[in-house]
Specification:
Blueprint (H helix, E strand, L loop, with lengths): L32 H15 L4 H7 L2 H18 L5 H28 L6 H29 L6 H5 L4 H9 L11
Helix pairs in contact: 2-3, 2-5, 3-5, 4-5
Length: 181
């Protein structure tokens, strides 16, 4: 590298070599950065009070079933007495309202500038997923609490990546009939 300036030009004199602290021995990392970040996010999420619907959304298998059962017990404890028809009608109305909010949020996301707004777009996408999954889980728990098992067709059709599926189906077929890209 470049040589240090001579003593007469140096602002502060360097301490003698023996007086400089020795470098500590190199220690091999035991955990990768990605794993450490994952653990930190999990700890931060555990520290926050997360709504039950979000816990259910992220859970799979037996854990999800147990969390849904807890929501079913809460719904039963709430004591709303509705006929299955009233329940379906209310769920349909709530679902329709939620779909309107999702569409408005997607439009807001679409209006964001292309560059420099990734965090905002990701936040809006997360909000959309949260709205859909929270309503799906809550409706599932309310249906189970009321003894109505089958989900409405609209809920089965609406998925978190619905707009991706629509883009695939809207894509035009290649003019020569081949499927090359």
């Amino acid at each position: 590298g470049p040589r240090p300036p001579p003593e007469r030009l140096r602002a502060t004199p360097l301490p003698p070599r023996a007086a400089q602290p020795a470098m500590p021995p190199k220690v091999k990392k035991r955990i990768s950065k990605s794993q450490r970040k994952k653990n930190q996010r999990a700890a931060a999420a555990a520290a926050k009070d997360v709504p039950m619907e979000l816990q259910v959304r992220k859970a799979r298998g037996q854990k999800r079933k147990a969390l849904v059962e807890m929501l079913v017990q809460q719904a039963k404890a709430a004591g709303k007495q509705e006929t299955p028809e009233q329940l379906r009608a209310r769920h349909a109305a709530e679902w329709k309202e939620m779909k309107a909010k999702v569409a408005a949020t997607k439009q807001a996301r679409k209006r964001l500038p292309k560059k420099g707004n990734k965090e905002a777009k990701v936040a809006l996408s997360g909000k959309i997923k949260e709205m859909i999954s929270e309503m799906t889980v809550r409706h599932e728990a309310e249906r189970k609490a009321a003894g109505v098992e089958e989900p409405p067709k609209a809920e089965e059709a609406m998925s978190e990546d619905e707009d991706f599926e629509l883009r695939i189906t809207r894509r035009a077929a290649p003019p020569n009939g081949s499927d090359r890209r």
